[in-house]
Amino acid sequence: MHLKGRIALAVGAIAVAFVWNIPSSAQLYRLAATPKQACPSPTDSTTLFVEKLAHHRIGYGLTPSTASVPGPTLTMTEGDCLAVTLVNDAGRRVGMHAHGVEYTPASDGTPLNASCVAPGRSRTYVFSAPGPSTRTDGTIDPGTAGYWHYHDHCMGTVHGTAGIKAGLYGALIVRRAGDLTPDRPPFVVVMNNVSINNRIAPHTPVFRANEGERIEFVVIAHGDLFHTFHLHAHRWVDNRTGYTSNPADTERLVDTRTIGPADSFGFQVIAGEGVGPGAWMYHCHVQGHSDAGMSGILYVRRANGTTTKQERRALQRWKDEHMAGMGGMSHH
Ligand SMILES: [Cu+2]
Q1: DSSP-assigned letter for residue 207
Q2: Are strands 122-129 and 97-98 parallel, antiparallel or unpaired?
Q3: Rounded to an integer, what is the distance from CA 232 to the centroid of its chain?
């Protein structure tokens, strides 16, 4: 073989070797997954009871008598590993499926992976929330911090459609070390078909805070509809945390955000900042949805916790008007 031919062959071999060495996306995934051990031992554990509630609702609760819609907000910090034991008192097959965190098939909470809970039985799910890391190939694993949620994936259909409709859902927050924490428990708004937390105004949540407090909203959507969450008189940064630590940043400020089924986001604001105390509405901005009762109140008191006639009257007007919109019927 001529020298030229040999060089061409060698170059060809190098090219083939090079192409073969580019990791496929499946290989990248394996690189990412290999060094991380999925939850060697839980750092925290909790028990959730699944209970039937009034008005055909079903909820998760930290005790059998405190089940609620939405269920308890679960909070983790990156590096944590949470074991959740689900106790099924609902008389029907239910489960718990978490978004955003890592788990093995046994904690998938689906019929597909045989991880539902039969009536009268219990099961422990394990969720891990690793932080960011550099993969062996130099790319970045972004970690798990975010405003996530959990829900049933077992009741009614293999997608848990009946469970979600009945109220089997809740917020799951994963914080990153150094994240700011709110002064009050998070306000959780679940836009589930044309309801907020399976309720319609004026039976939707009135979230109370004092002027100047750092408050946190977690907004989740479920069901079949898209929504536009809007909060009056406040705005936030459309990023992972909802706030910024860099005044020169170019991140978008918003006071409304579109959200579709199983999507979730969260943010922190200072209650009444720049605007003072007031009954500040939050609602879906799809007009037909807000008119149908997808509306609630952020009730900001003075910094000392007292209220003024102005916001008390506004709250009453909101209740009266939505009650009239419902034909005066009491509906939960
Ligand atoms: Cu809506």
Answers
A1: E
A2: unpaired
A3: 21
- Mean pLDDT confidence for 180-209: 98
Distance from Cα 197 to the centre of ligand 1, integer Å: 12
CA of 291 to the centre of ligand 1 (A): 10
Distance 185 CA to ligand 1 centre (A): 24
For the cut 70, the answer to whether the pLDDT of residue 131 exceeds it is yes
Check whether 158 has a pLDDT greater than 80. yes
Q: How far is the CA of 9 from the centre of ligand 1 (A)?
A: 63
Backbone phi, psi, residue 54, to 5° = -65, 165
The pair of structure tokens assigned to 305 is 């916790």
- What is the distance in A from the centroid of ligand 1 to the CA of 222? 11
Task: Give the distance (Å) from ligand 1 centre to CA of residue 191.
Answer: 7
Q: Report CA(258)–ligand 1 centroid distance (Å).
A: 9
pLDDT tens digits for range 55-106: 999 999 999 999 999 999 999 999 999 999 999 999 999 999 999 999 999 9
| 180: confidence class by pLDDT, cuts 50, 70, 90 | very high
CB 237 within 8 Å of CB 267: yes
Taking the CA atoms of 194, 200, 201 and 205 in sequence, report the sign of the dihedral they define.
Answer: negative
225 Cα to the center of ligand 1, angstroms: 7
Q: Is the pTM of this model over 0.85?
A: yes
